[in-house]
Structure formats: structure tokens, C-alpha cells
Design brief:
The protein is α+β, with helices and mostly antiparallel strands. It has 4 domains: 107 residues, no CATH class; 89 residues, 2-Layer Sandwich (Beta-Lactamase), CATH 3.30.450.20; 83 residues, Helix Hairpins, CATH 1.10.287; 144 residues, Heat Shock Protein 90 (2-Layer Sandwich). The protein is built from 11 helices and 14 strands. It has a 5-stranded antiparallel sheet with strand order 2-1-5-4-3. α2 runs parallel beside α3 and α9 crosses α10. The chain starts with a helix and ends with a strand. The mean pLDDT is 79.
Amino acid sequence: MASRNFYVQLIFRVVLMALTALAFAFSAIELWYFSIVFSLIFLVGQVYSLITFINSTNRKIAYFFDAIRNEDFTLRFPEKVSIKSFKELNQSLNRVNSLIQEIHLEMQVREKYYQEILKQASIGIMTINEKGHILFANPTLEKLLNHSPLNHIKQIEQIDENLYSIFKNLKPFERKLFQLTNEREQTQLSLKSTPLTLDGKSLTLVVVQDINAELDEKEIESWIRLIRVLTHEIMNSITPITSISDSIIKYYSKDGEIASLKDLDDHKIKNTLKGLEVIKEQGGNLMEFVQSYRSLLSVPEPNRTIVKGKEFLGKIDVLMSTRLEEEQTNFTVRCSPEDLEFFIDEKQLTQVLINLCKNALQSVKEVESGQVQMKAGIDNDGRKYIEIMDNGPGIPPDLLDEIFVPFFTTKNEGTGIGLSLSKQVMQLHGGSLKVHSVPYGETIFRLNFA
């Protein structure tokens, strides 16, 4: 309504100015000097009135937007004016001002709510701009770093130079682990960065978490699994030894005393020899088990060199070809791009891939049209990988967390340390070994390289 009245008045003034200009032109032609002066003065007055009329409206709107920008909602326009269009315009501006004020107050409440959530969060949160200024750091982060207040990442250099170097060189979506040591305790920190843009400015959101509790929990869980497996293996070897030893003792003792030679017959002597052979065999198995444990604890540091991926996988293909059964299993190797290179210890990774390929071939042994594929490439994040995939029966979900536990095995043969050693070798290379399995679909062991 205000806009319509404004345009009506504007059109009326422009039409009146046009008529006055015509009158001035006609008077000039007819040389009516009095009419010329009068129409000119009237035209100038109309122009000045039009400019004043438009500027008054523009000034109101300009004042309105300046007040909004400065978050000043006390500005009120008078609604009791003689000009109806101005009255309606002022009323509209006041309504808009009240509405924006309500929204602003609601946003302030939400902002305080979110800030309180961030302050109470159990993880450290901070935002850094391109110049290294810390725009926000919640109390949890200041407590983790034992420094307050945090205004610039250079302050972190006073806490720990290595931690400062990590913060300074942290790339988008990068995750880092760091052990912070001070005079009170050691804290294992997990850092993750996420880029964001706010008001056209590039910022970095860094989340810092103390993972000591999680690590302790995982460590205890790993020890429990290891002890369970160790107990099972040792008991399997010790139980027959104890049972046979007890039987032999009964042969050579009577009423608590050593039996005489006349009480021994050929049957007892033969059973004694058989029992001693079983004890020797079980003792050898136990020694072999201990030796496997020692080998798990003494994996050497990798002697890494640059290895061409296609040639490396070709060697594994040749080594595994002797294990293929005729017309039962299809073993394929693929490397993309063909000039892919790895910085690895070739001997260690050869053993890892042989172990994984051997397991895959064994899993598809009873599968019709069994297939095993070894593939090397680069993922979307630019990381190099090698995958071993098969279409065997897969790994049950409840065993996925167990297969990397040392000495755990579902086979009748083997020590159960192959996957544990493989995972340890990948960790020494700065990478990881992951598994994904869909029962009777596909099983993929993936070697990710840093």
C-alpha cells in the first residue's frame, strides 16, 4: 500500500512538471514574459520538491538499513504524519524492524545455546583463520593443552614445539595422533581438521580429543583376547602331558612307594614309551608355539626401496601360480596405473601378500568358479593400496574382530599369527591392513599405504 501511494504521488509530480515545462515552452514561443518567469519559478519549485520528496524516503530507508547493520533496533519512524504514503511507509518499516528484532533475538538465544554446548563438549574444539588466529577455543581444549587463553597457534609452541608443528602444517581432513607430555601426565591426543567458509573467510575447524581412555579400553580388550587364545593353546598342549604323566606315575608307584621291577610287564613298558613320545611331541608343539610368539615380537624395521607395482605383483602371481588347482580357481592380477610405484620393504610385503593370497585360495577351494583377484591402485584420496579379493564363504561378523588377534585361527593347521604379522608389517610401513567381508559374497583384504 505504501509503495502504491508513493508511486501515485511520484507520477502526479512528474506529470505536473511536464505540464509546467510545456507551459514554459509555449510562453517562450509566444513571448509571454510574465508567464515565462512564473512557469520557470514554478518548475524549479516542483523539481526541488520532487528531489526533497524522494530523498526523504531514501534517507529513511538508508537509516533503516544502517540501523539493521549496526544491530540497533531502537529506531522508530513516526506513524502520525499528514502524508498518507509516508505514514504507511513508516508503519511498514517499523513492522519489518520489529520482525528482524525478533529474529535477531532468537538467533542470539540459539547462538548462546550452541556456544554452551561447545563449552560443555567433552572434546576440544577450535577454529583458526588463515593467519593463525584462534577465533574460538572451548574450555575443554584449553584444559587438554593446559593453556589459557588461546589466541594464536604460536602459543602452542610454548606448550610443545612438535605439537605446534602439527597444528601449523595440518591439512584439510587430515588426522594426526600426538602424545603430549607434561609434568603431570601423558595425554594421547587425536587431531582432525575440517575446512569451512564463514562470511567469505576460509577457516579451519580442529577437533582435539583425549583418546587415552579409548586406548586403555582397547588395550585391555586386546590383552583379554590374547590371553584367551594363549590359554587355549597352552592348555591344549599341557592337558595331554599332565594326563599321560599321571598314568605313567601310576605304573611305577604302588601304595605311595616305587613299584618293584617284578610288577612291571611289557604292556606297561610299551605304554610308558608311547606316553613319553606323546609328551615329547606335545613339548615340541609347545616350543614351536613359543617360537612363533618370539617371531611375532621381533619383526625388523622395514628396509624400504622404490618398487614398481606391476613387476612386484607379477612376482606374486608367479609364486602363487603353483598353488592353483586346475580349472577350479581363477587368479587374476591387475595394476592401475601401470607405472604405479611403492616405497616398501619388498621381502616383507612379499610374505604378507603370499599369506593373504594363500588364505584367499584356501577359502575358495570348495567354491564352484572360485575367483581370487589381486589389485593395486590409487584411491580417491590419493592413497596407494593393494587389495586381495575372493568370492569364498567369507568371515562371520562375530569373527572379524578376532582374526588379527595373535594365534587365533579357525583352521586345523597353522599357528594363527599370519594376519597378526601382516598387520604389524603394514603398521611398520606407516599403513594399515583392513578387511571387509560379505558372507558368500566377497571378502577383501586391503593394504593401505601412507
